[in-house]
Design goal:
There is one protein chain. The strands form three sheets. Strands 10-9-11-12-8-13 form a six-stranded parallel sheet, sandwiched between helices. It is built from eight helices and 13 strands. The chain is an alpha/beta fold. It has two domains: 6-148, Nucleoside Triphosphate Pyrophosphohydrolase; 157-227 and 240-327, P-loop containing nucleotide triphosphate hydrolases (Rossmann fold, 3-Layer(aba) Sandwich). It is 25% helix and 25% strand. Residues 9-146 form the Nudix hydrolase domain. This is Nudix hydrolase domain-containing protein. InterPro entries: CblAdoTrfase_CobA, NUDIX_hydrolase-like_dom_sf, NUDIX_hydrolase_CS, NUDIX_hydrolase_dom, P-loop_NTPase.
């Protein structure tokens, strides 16, 4: 192997995210031979700086083969990110721009390490590495999770069975309450006891699902809020003191329901009720904290507070890629209300 001198190297590095069919990424442990001693053992990505006269793909192929013995020259690759970092000692830091490439491989890959690295691991993308990492390694793992829509495992619920988690549905697209009602029906069909608290949805003329809920023995629902739609179909957007009183009444109902009598509790429009100032997020969090551990909780509504997003174990955002509302289609009974 020909070792390139530092003066022959450019200040652009190519790093490879070599990912197998199990969504495991190849990470290599820095041997500390070409950097400071503090880098020894840090998890790195195969790849390095381009040589003069190389194009990025040539530099990527060369570096990966030199460091791992894996020939990726015939593989399709894809740029998935870029970042900056520094090389050299504390008094002579030189900035390098890194390009990150996704390389998908199949089957068992034989890894032959160069003297730059002392060990390697095939690491699951959804897991936090047990070893110390470089900042760009962390960056790349986050980019991969976003690309593959993989979330980092939550150690607080790892392997948990049964009910007791928090689900949150938000966004400006159609389907938040619909999703919650679907889960309520599914749970009821499994023999579970379900409660729904409607926030800011007073009245009964504009909620067709309630006619069906009235017929299901193990689903109870409770209504709070004013009827905001008048006889001409006009919506009242104002927030008055009565709205706050009604919201607090709904929250008190929710507090009682979360004590354990029900398996699943839905707080419909709780997110927007907080966002519009009818409830303080702190008082809602206090109620959630007292929830019995066996009760599954579903929160819906636009513009959720960050405290609720952080507490939820499942977060789904509904985004309107298309909506017939913008074509002048009015709300239709049985579909939109």
């Amino acid at each position: 192997m020909i070792r390139l001198r530092s003066m022959d190297l450019m200040y652009v590095a190519n790093k490879a995210a070599i990912v197998n069919e199990k969504n495991e990424i190849l990470l290599v442990g820095d041997a500390g031979t070409h950097h400071t001693e503090v880098s020894r053992g840090k998890l790195d990505l195969p790849g390095g700086r381009m040589a003069k006269g190389e194009n990025p793909r040539q530099g990527l192929d060369r570096e990966v083969f030199e460091e791992t013995g894996i020939d990726i020259s015939k593989h399709e690759v894809e740029i998935i990110g870029a970042s900056n970092w520094y090389i050299g000692g504390d008094e002579n830091k030189e900035q390098v721009t890194g390009i990150f490439w996704l390389v998908r491989v199949q089957g068992n890959q034989e890894v032959i390490l160069s003297d730059e690295h002392s060990f390697f691991v095939w690491h699951r993308i959804d897991k936090t590495p047990e070893w110390e990492t470089y900042s760009f390694t962390d960056y790349l793992l986050k980019e991969l999770r976003k690309k593959f829509e993989i979330q980092e495992a939550d150690p607080s619920i790892l392997g948990r069975q049964g009910y007791g988690l928090i689900q949150l549905y938000h966004g400006h697209g159609k389907g938040k309450t619909t999703a919650a009602l679907g889960l309520a029906m599914r749970a009821a069909g499994a023999g579970k006891k379900v409660a729904i608290v409607y926030f800011d949805k007073g009245g009964s003329a504009h909620y067709s699902e309630r006619a069906l809920l009235d017929q299901i023995d193990n689903i109870d629902y409770f209504v709070s809020g004013r009827d905001r739609i008048d006889e001409k179909g006009r919506f009242d957007f104002s927030i008055i003191e009565k709205d706050k009183i009604e919201a607090r009444r709904g929250l008190k109902i929710a507090e009682d329901l979360l004590s354990g009598e029900y398996d699943l509790v839905v707080l419909d429009e709780i997110n927007s009720t907080i966002a519009l100032g009818m409830l303080d997020v702190i008082e809602v969090i206090e109620v959630i904290k007292e929830k019995k551990s066996s009760v599954e909780l579903i929160l819906t509504g636009r513009d959720p507070h960050s405290e609720l997003l952080n507490r939820a174990h499942l977060v789904t955002e509904m985004k309107p890629q298309k909506h017939y509302f913008y074509s002048g289609v009015k709300a239709r009974e049985g579909l939109d209300y």
